[in-house]
């Protein structure tokens, strides 16, 4: 793994959880970090927390709600006008939705979750592409999940096979397909989907066995590896779609 000393990274949903830990780690490695947060106060507090530990870190709060065109456009203008450029876009913001038995799941339950987990990354990626494409070594990182993997959810040896839910897994499966299509369409951009692994965050009521340090390993790897593998990775290496 190399450091990202000269890289500029934008992470959506970075005011807490895995996004925050990724922002903190990349800032420590010397990256310029745009810390995306839909709530400006939560964003400013997260940046202040990083600066308390790392006073010289170049971390900037960026108000960005991935579900709102206007918010994403305003964020783009702010980053583009700042002159930092953009080398790595990390689509991390995500929500779990509520788990209901499949037989009781109504179509409307998909809308908010797909709005954040699928349409959010598409909106942010499409908006920021022109800036990303100006980078000498652009990277696009999608924070997906093992629950979006057909292979892992079908493997009885894996914890992912124990989850029976229509909405969140299908949002991440759709994100995986979008990721492979971006990879084909944009060969000059290194595109990686990441499964952080089951990690204690607000997303799951802090029930995951991994720490955020462990959960952010593969995201940091996708952002910083000298030769990123691309494809779909966890902290243990490549994983099946
Ligand atoms: N934790 C796990 O076990 C696990 C496993 C696999 C994949 N993941 C994925 O990892 C990513 C990060 O999740 P996490 O576990 O770190 O959860 P988290 O602690 O709940 O953080 C989620 C982040 O997304 C933000 N967010 C939600 N809706 C947003 C919107 N409309 N616009 C912008 N930001 C928004 C949240 O902001 P607010 O604070 O304002 O709500 C928060 O900053 C997600 O994509 C999740 O699906 C997590």
SSE layout:
Blueprint: E1 8-11, H1 17-28, E2 32-37, H2 40-53, E3 58-63, H3 69-82, E4 88-91, H4 110-132, E5 139-143, H5 150-153, H6 167-185, E6 190-194, H7 212-215, H8 217-224, E7 231-234, E8 237-238
Parallel strand pairs: 1-2, 1-4, 2-3, 4-5, 5-6, 6-7
Antiparallel strand pairs: 7-8
Helix pairs in contact: 3-4, 4-6
The structure holds NADP nicotinamide-adenine-dinucleotide phosphate.
Using the 3D structure, state the CATH architecture: 3-Layer(aba) Sandwich
Bulk shape:
globular
* Structural class designation: alpha/beta
**Roughly how much helix do the residues carry, as a percent range?**
40-55%
Order of H and E elements: EHEHEHEHEHHEHHEE
Bound molecules: NADP nicotinamide-adenine-dinucleotide phosphate
Uncertain stretches: 1-5
So, the CATH homologous superfamily? Answer: NAD(P)-binding Rossmann-like Domain
CATH fold descriptor? Rossmann fold
Terminal CA distance? 24 Å
Number of continuous helical runs: 8
Strand percentage, roughly? 5-15%
Q: Calculate Rg over CA atoms.
A: 17 Å
Overall average pLDDT: 96
Number of strands: 8
């Amino acid at each position: 793994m190399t450091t990202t000393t000269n890289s500029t990274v934008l992470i959506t949903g970075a005011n807490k959880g895995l996004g925050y830990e990724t922002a903190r780690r990349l800032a420590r490695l010397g990256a310029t970090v745009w810390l995306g947060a839909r709530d400006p106060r939560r964003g400013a507090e997260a940046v202040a927390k990083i600066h308390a530990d790392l006073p010289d870190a170049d971390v900037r709060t960026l108000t960005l709600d991935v579900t709102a065109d206007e918010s994403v456009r305003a964020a783009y203008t702010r980053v583009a006008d700042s002159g930092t450029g953009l080398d790595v876009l990390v689509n991390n913001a995500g929500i779990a939705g509520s788990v209901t038995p499949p037989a009781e799941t109504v179509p409307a339950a998909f809308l908010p979750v797909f709005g954040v987990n699928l349409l959010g990354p598409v909106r942010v990626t499409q908006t920021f592409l022109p800036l990303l494409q100006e980078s000498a070594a652009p990277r696009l990182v999608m924070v997906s999940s093992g629950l979006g993997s057909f292979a892992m959810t079908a493997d009885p040896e894996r914890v992912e096979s124990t989850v029976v839910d229509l909405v969140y897994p299908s949002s991440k499966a759709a994100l995986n397909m979008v990721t492979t299509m971006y990879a084909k369409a944009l060969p000059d951009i290194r595109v990686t989907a990441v499964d952080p692994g089951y990690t204690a965050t607000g997303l799951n009521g802090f029930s995951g066995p991994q720490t955020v340090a462990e959960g952010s390993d593969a995201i940091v790897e996708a952002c910083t590896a000298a030769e990123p593998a691309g494809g779909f990775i966890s902290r243990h290496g490549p994983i099946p779609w």
